[in-house]
C-alpha cells in the first residue's frame, strides 16, 4: 500500500462553482502509479467547500450558485458579520456542502463518472487562493 500527501494551492476564483478536476490531476502525478486506491481531497477553509457534479454544461454551475443563494440568503439577520455581508453565509454554505471528497482511483485515473467533475464552491465574493490537502493511497500496478 502506497501513501502520498501534498498540499496544493488553487488560484483565486470569484464567487461561484468552478471545475478543478484538472488542477488536482496535474498536481498529483503519483496518481498514474496507482492501480486501485482512494483519493481524499480536503479544503482547508471554512468559507469554501467541495462537491462533485456535472462537468459538461456551465449552466449547472450557474444553477447551483442560484439555488444555494436562495437557500442561504445574505440578507438573513446573522449575528456574525466580522468580514462582511458574505462572511456568515459563506460559512453556512460551506457546512452544507462539506470540506472533503473521497474518490476511487482505478488504473492511474480518478474513477469519476462520464459527466462528473470536482467543483470548488467559492462562497465569498473575493475568497482568495484556496489550499487543498490531497491524500492518495492505494496499490501500484
Major sheet: size, sense and barrel closure? 5 strands, antiparallel
| Domain count | 1
Order of helices and strands: EEHEEHHEEEE
Order of the strands making up the biggest sheet: 1-8-3-5-6
Detail the poorly predicted runs.
none
Structure description:
The chain is of the alpha+beta class. 22% of the residues lie in helices and 45% in strands. It has a single domain (20-126), classed as YjbQ-like (Jelly Rolls, Sandwich). The chain has helices spanning 21-26, 58-71, 87-97; strands at residues 2-10, 14-19, 34-43, 48-54, 100-106, 109-110, 116-126, 130-140. 24% of the residues are buried.
Question: What is the gist of this entry?
Answer:
The chain is an alpha+beta fold and 141 residues long. The protein has three helices and eight strands.
List the helices and strands and how they pair.
Layout: E1 2-10, E2 14-19, H1 21-26, E3 34-43, E4 48-54, H2 58-71, H3 87-97, E5 100-106, E6 109-110, E7 116-126, E8 130-140
Antiparallel strand pairs: 1-8, 2-7, 3-5, 3-8, 4-7, 5-6
Task: List its traits.
alpha+beta, elongated, Jelly Rolls, 3 helices, three-stranded antiparallel sheet, five-stranded antiparallel sheet, 141 residues, 45% strand, 22% helix
Amino acid at each position: 500500500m502506497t501513501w502520498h500527501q501534498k498540499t496544493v494551492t488553487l488560484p483565486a476564483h470569484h464567487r461561484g462553482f468552478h471545475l478543478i478536476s484538472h488542477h488536482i490531476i496535474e498536481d498529483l502525478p503519483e496518481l498514474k502509479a496507482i492501480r486501485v486506491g482512494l483519493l481524499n481531497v480536503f479544503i482547508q477553509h471554512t468559507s469554501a467547500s467541495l462537491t462533485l457534479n456535472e462537468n459538461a454544461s456551465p449552466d449547472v454551475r450557474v444553477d447551483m450558485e442560484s439555488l444555494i443563494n436562495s437557500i442561504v440568503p445574505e440578507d438573513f439577520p446573522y449575528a456574525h458579520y466580522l468580514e462582511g455581508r458574505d462572511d456568515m453565509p459563506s460559512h453556512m454554505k460551506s457546512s452544507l456542502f462539506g470540506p472533503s471528497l473521497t474518490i476511487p482511483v482505478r488504473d492511474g485515473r480518478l474513477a469519476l463518472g462520464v459527466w462528473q467533475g470536482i467543483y470548488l464552491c467559492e462562497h465569498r465574493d473575493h475568497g482568495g487562493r484556496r489550499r487543498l490537502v490531497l491524500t492518495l493511497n492505494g496499490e501500484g500496478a
